[in-house]
Design a protein that fits this description.
- The chain has 250 residues and is an alpha/beta fold.
- Helices cover 35% and strands 25% of the residues.
- Strand 12, helix 6 and strand 13 form a beta-alpha-beta unit.
- The longest helix is centred in the last third of the chain and has 28 residues.
């Protein structure tokens, strides 16, 4: 059996899965305890067997990538295969004029979406940042947009206003909030929903075809009930795409 370790290093969490002969395990995750990523890994990465390959998609700083690379080399005597966006792979054509500028996580998500859905899709990754990418039915990436995620909106309000402070409010079904923390939380979610809805409408009109929305990222469960229409929740989209890329690299 061949075990490949697939890693998605996001802004907030380190996520991973083991791919055994192409079949992916349940995804695991850990939050970064501080800036020292090695502290997170040493003695705490619960793998039953040593992997034969280790692949990474990352949005973290280069020094943390190098620390992860060094740890893997020292612990398992394996190279770290760092995945970045290409002009074309696995049936997806990159829409960026400079292909390598597209985030590796967004690239992996596009690859997964292409293999999961045969129609045009709008991929919304709701994490620290909210990214939106459009893939047509032929696998052409038409481009995308990036805005702050709800958490960053909240942090910006805390930092730049005198009258808003404290923890973010709890989720509520009410359209309008009756306390400031809930108003901040609800406002961030509604701003994200408005962004997604506007872009979905414009893209549907531009393509003149049905458009499936794929939702992933840490804030996706909060946004899912607020978005009408054909919305699919795929929490492990990035790692699924990395698995497909890994099989293509054999």
């Amino acid at each position: 059996m061949s075990d490949w370790l697939l890693i998605d290093a996001g802004n907030t969490n380190l996520k991973w899965a083991v791919s055994r002969n192409g079949e992916m395990s349940v995804v695991q995750r850990m939050a970064y305890p501080d800036k020292d990523i090695v502290k997170l890994l040493s003695g705490s990465w619960p793998l039953a067997t040593l992997p034969q390959r280790v692949l990474l998609v990352s949005v973290i700083a280069e020094d943390r990538v190098q620390a992860l690379k060094h740890w893997i080399q020292k612990s398992w005597h394996l190279p770290l295969e760092i995945v970045s966006a290409q002009a074309q792979v696995c049936g997806v054509v990159n829409g960026y004029t400079q292909a390598e500028q597209l985030g590796a996580d967004r690239w992996a998500a596009l690859v997964a979406a292409r293999h999961l859905f045969s129609a045009a899709v709008c991929i919304v990754d709701c994490g620290t940042a909210t990214t939106l990418d459009v893939l047509d039915a032929e696998g052409r990436h038409l481009g995308g947009l990036i805005v702050p995620g709800p958490g960053l909106m909240h942090a910006s309000l805390i930092e730049n206003t005198a009258g808003i402070h404290g923890e973010i409010g709890a989720a509520t079904d009410a359209l309008l909030a009756r306390d400031t923390p809930s108003a901040v939380r609800g406002g961030g979610l509604q701003a994200t929903v408005g962004f997604v809805e506007r872009l979905r409408r414009e893209v549907r009109e531009m393509l003149a075809v049905p458009l499936t929305t794929i939702l992933c990222g840490g804030n996706a469960p909060d946004l899912l009930p607020l978005l009408p229409g054909d919305v699919r929740y795929e929490p492990d989209l990035v790692l699924k795409g990395l698995n497909i890329i890994a099989m293509n690299r054999v």
